[in-house]
Fold this sequence. Notes:
Elements: H1 3-6, E1 11-16, H2 27-40, E2 44-48, H3 50-57, E3 64-67, H4 81-89, E4 94-98, H5 110-120, E5 124-128, H6 132-141, E6 145-147, H7 167-176, E7 182-185, H8 191-199, E8 204-207, H9 209-212, H10 214-226
Parallel strand pairs: 1-2, 1-8, 2-3, 3-4, 4-5, 5-6, 6-7, 7-8
Helix pairs in contact: 2-3
Amino acid sequence: MHSLIENLKGKLIVSCQAYIGEPLRHPETMAQMARACELGGASAIRAQGLADIAAIKGRVEIPVIGLWKEGHKGVYITPSVRHALACAASGADIVALDATDGKRLDGRTFEETIDAIRAQSDVLLMADCATIDDMRRAVHAGCDMVSTTLSHGCAAIECSAGDGPDLPLLKQAVAEFPHVPVVCEGRVHTPRDANDALEAGAWSVVVGTAITHPTSLTSWFCAGMQS
């Protein structure tokens, strides 16, 4: 196992992303956010888009997990070899990509995508998964980490404060792949959620919305006060 991944065991990864049209959507703002998270104890940052990856990489000393979203449906998280290599070139230590069995922009299968990336780069690869079958596909293809990123079936901004992480999938993956780091990502909204994920066997825990998305946080408080 690569030492970078080994050092993430039991640690917090913070996702610093802003959606299109939001006031915080600017590389410098995301870099400042990432640095603040680093000072708070984050052990890695997950970042979207080439400009954000480069800006954050220049600001923090911890590893950067980079991805490039194109579109909002189907395979949109780092959907081609070109996207993955660009993330690596922008400074990502780990590249995250969609491991679902959908059509990719360049026509390759997931397995062909992994092989093509490996042939051109030694960047570490994190598979964003929706199901246990996705995780099996990713492990068989040789990904360095697998994650529950897509198992919640909705964008982070659409999830309510009462939702929790997909612990059943996490536990199944940990049992089936004892030698592969399984990351819990998605709907981790409280410190208790994060601790529950670690107790369920997560290698690392990714928190995004609950730390770096003030629009959602504000809406949760407003909704709570109205109820």
